[in-house]
Predict the structure of Capsular polysaccharide transport system permease protein.
Amino acid sequence: METVSSNNAALPPPGKKKGLVERVRGINRLFTLTVAIPTAVAIVYFGLVASDVYVSESRFVVRSPQRQNQTSVVGALLQGTGFSRAQDDTYPVIDYIESRDALTELNRGSYIADAYSNHGDFVSRFHTHLDNSFEALWKYYGKHIVSVDLDPTSAITTLQIRAYTAKDAEKINEALLQMSEHLINRMNERAAADTVRFAQEQVDTATAKAKDAAAALALYRNSYTVFDPEKQSALQLQQVTALQTQMFAAQTQLIQLQSIAPQNPQIPVLKASIASLEKQVQEATGGVTGSSNSLSAKAVAYARLQLDSQFADKQLASTMAALENARAEAQRKQLYLERLVEPNTPDVAIEPKRLKSIFEVFALGMMIWGVLSLLVSGVREHHD
């Protein structure tokens, strides 16, 4: 009896032993669900099922002939060649590469849809039988096919294309580069056309104003029989001066004759000559000033029309110079997509990274298992 009692005392209580076994079994089930099964699935998928993915890479830079301050080695190299980086203009190219328009251009004849639905494993391929819409293809395109990375320091853009065949990867990469070059050319043409068109409109407007001003001046000359009032007035004033000189000489001679020989028969002749000269002086003076039809009255309107014509001519010359500058500026601001690395045709598949992916699944499972184990242990201890 004593021996049996001592043996029973050495054994743990039945309830306590049962709880420990259940706890171990619970931990094993949790480990199996979070670590063992996901890792086994990853080994099977990445080791046996996952298709090889070929990556074609190219690099390019968008630059402009404008000189700017450069800080990097590549920037200094570009500056030495007379070109500068155009980093702000690289973002539109990147957006276009990732856009629906680019995919529409690539997918002519359902090329992209067929290339990614007829190849690849059942997990990573594009499933046309589930969703054959263009929106689904565009999401697949941005997630699995194309990736664009811009280095802000060197302004070099790296374009990577993933495909299930090396030929498709290189072909899509080359097509995207050509489409990007066409986009840059369209941007250049549009910018140059807008700049030159505005300058040309200014020239056309100035030309019309110059023609109108010249026509108005010619019409005034023909209507009022005047060529240049200022020059014509100078000529008439010279004539008035000559007539006044002759009249003063005749008056002096008349005074002398009247004082020496009052009965001289030349006196009436001199008086008639003086009267004629006075009339001529009055007519000549009236042609310059004094009447509404005088040159001085015509000079005001003529000067205004002449000033308008001169101003229109100067404006026309200014707009023509601006047009030439606009054309030169449009050429100077041209953008260029320069390929630094041509699209390669990969000879081996570098994706998926099978061992790395399996290890990542295992590590993630271990983290989840550890967290859930702590939570389960805490809950059980709380209930106990």
User: Anything to note?
Assistant: The chain is about 70% helix and 10% strand. The beta strands are 54-64, 84-85, 146-150, 157-163, 336-341. The longest strand covers residues 54-64.
